[in-house]
Amino acid sequence: MKQIRVHDVRFFAKTTLQLGLVSLVSGALCATPVLAQAAVSSSDAFNFPEDISFIARQDNPNDRSATARVNGNIITGTEIDDRVALILSAQPDVQLSQEDMQGLRLQVLRNLIDETLQVQEAAAQDMPVTEEEVKSAYERFAREGRGMSPEELDAYLRSVGSSPNSIKRQIQGELAWDRLLRRNVAPFVNVSEGEVTELKERLEASRGTTEYRLGEIFLAATPANSEQVLANAQQIVQQLREGGSFVAYARQYSQASSAIVGGDLGWIRLEQLQNAQLETAAAQMSPGQLVGPLQIPGGYSILLMIDQRQIGMADPRDAVLSLKQISIDWPEGLSDAEIEQRGNAFMQEVQSFQGCGDADARAAALGATTVDNDEIAVRALPEQLQPILLNLNVGQTTPPFGVLEEGIRVLMLCGRDDPAEAVGPTTDQLMAQMEDERINRRAQRYLRDLRRDAVIEYN
Q1: Using an 8 Å Cβ cutoff, are 309 and 210 in contact?
Q2: What is the pLDDT of residue 173?
Q3: For 243, what's the count of Cα atoms within 13 Å in the CB-facing half-sphere?
Q4: What DSSP designation does 377 have?
Q5: Where do runs of H (alpha helix) occur along 90-140?
Q6: Quick one: 370 exposed, middle or buried, by C-beta within 10 A (0-12, 13-18, 19+)?
Q7: Is the pTM of this model over 0.85?
Q8: Exposed / middle / buried, residue 395 (Cβ in 10 Å: 0-12, 13-18, 19+)
Q9: Which pLDDT score, from 0 to 100, does residue 42 have?
Q10: How far apart are CA 357 and CA 21, in angstroms?
Q11: Spans in the chain with pLDDT lower than 70
């Protein structure tokens, strides 16, 4: 039976992906592209009043104990502490406020509740995950995912304030969920050849058009709370610009269905956004750029351009280059005029180099150094250099860059292997993709049903 590429909805998935756990336990993630704004459920059926007055006061509606009993099984504070420590160890430079830490702990509690429900459901259907299976997967993860022995991984986890049980608990949940979906969901998902043929024809018709992979954090707002929501959105943008994880913030704060996959909308065309302001903003963005918050109907949106591509076409950024870096440093004490003079003289000499074969000896005569890299993809280079290098011929150099007061450097193109012409997905690949998307949708409904039927007591 083929591996089902599914994953339940978890904040912790970010950490396990970094550790390599998911690939060893339940296969690759395959998230169905979704549009964020469409994810906020309509509340018209509840007929809410404009101003809500609580009959029984509560000191803090968000102040809930971070422990629970799920259908009789206890989730302890220690388990939450261990999971939080593991998440934070993956992002050591991110400092969370007290409010953010409380939000993270509540999210971790929800994740642990989901894992508990999955393990319980597998056991109730006579296919429990055994301790031996968990131990075997943990050992495989230690060796293949981390390059450690199980004992070394144990020591590492304790050193960051976590424990081996934190990963073993998630392994148990992953294995339980995988076998539940294999038996209760996958066999009932069917994709016809006609559906695949239709999708293939649509892909061929769109060949050459641009697709965008966008991340979105959507915060719902009403006229009454718009200013507060905008302030929160601006704070999130500031934290993202300071190095915060977009995936983590989307999982924690976004009120869109895409939050379950870290805000990733998948590969889409701009018209699929169904909002003129978002379309205009996205069309002007380059990969890695963050914009927002943008006010749209229903709230505010923060966009991240993850990548762009042309459908069915080879991406020039997949070209593999052979590069030579030529750099020169200045002695201390030079005046600005002397630095400028030496810089101009250096560039004139470099322009006279006769290709990479001539560069090493002539650079040494100038007091410069060279470094070679014979196999580097264009997309692995800084974004500012990518378009310049794509337009160079062999033997040509980039403009000088660096800190002028300290020295300058250039890159010389020594060779280039262009990517092969892109080949569209096969019929089998398209069918597998459509099956995976449907499995994921049913998996989400399955998990919602388990939550709805559960008896959960918060301590």
Answers
A1: yes
A2: 92
A3: 6
A4: E
A5: 98-124, 131-140
A6: middle
A7: no
A8: middle
A9: 43
A10: 45
A11: 1-66, 91-94, 206, 208, 312-313, 420-424
Whether the CB-CB separation of 97 and 242 falls below 8 Å is answered with no
What local confidence, expressed as pLDDT, does residue 120 receive? Answer: 94
Q: For 76, which DSSP code?
A: P
pLDDT at residue 89 in the model:
82
Q: How far is CA 354 from CA 128, 342, 358, 363, 374, in A?
A: 69, 21, 6, 12, 18
Number of residues that make up the chain? 459
**What span, in angstroms and rounded, lies between the C-alpha atoms of 113 and 104?**
14
Name the segment(s) of the chain with CATH classification 1.10.4030.10: 13-32+62-191+435-458
Tell me which DSSP letter residue 450 carries. Answer: H
Quick one: DSSP state of residue 284?
T
**What whole-number distance in Å separates Cα of residue 385 and Cα of residue 189?**
46
- Looking at residue 55, what DSSP letter applies? S
Measure the CA–CA gap between 109 and 77, rounded to whole angstroms: 9
Residue 46 structure tokens: 């509840």
At 154 the pLDDT is 93
Element (H, E) at 169: helix 164-184
Question: Structurally, what CATH architecture does the domain formed by 316-417 represent?
Answer: Roll (3.10)
Q: Within the chain, which residue ranges are assigned CATH 3.10.50.40? A: 210-310, 316-417
How does 332-341 read in b/e, with b if 16+ C-beta sit within 10 Å?
A: eeeeeeebee
Could you report the per-residue pLDDT of 12-38, keeping only the tens digit for each? 333 333 333 333 333 322 333 334 444
Tell me how far apart the alpha carbons of residues 395 and 374 are, in angstroms, rounded to a whole number: 14
Q: What is the DSSP letter of 243?
A: T
Pick the CATH number of 13-32+62-191+435-458 from 1.10.4030.10, 2.70.40.10, 3.40.47.10, 3.40.50.1580: 1.10.4030.10
Candidates 2.40.30.10, 3.40.50.300, 3.10.50.40, 2.40.50.140; CATH matching 210-310: 3.10.50.40
Q: What is the C-alpha separation between 109 and 173, in angstroms, rounded?
A: 14
Encode pLDDT of 280-295 as tens digits. Answer: 888 888 888 898 888 8
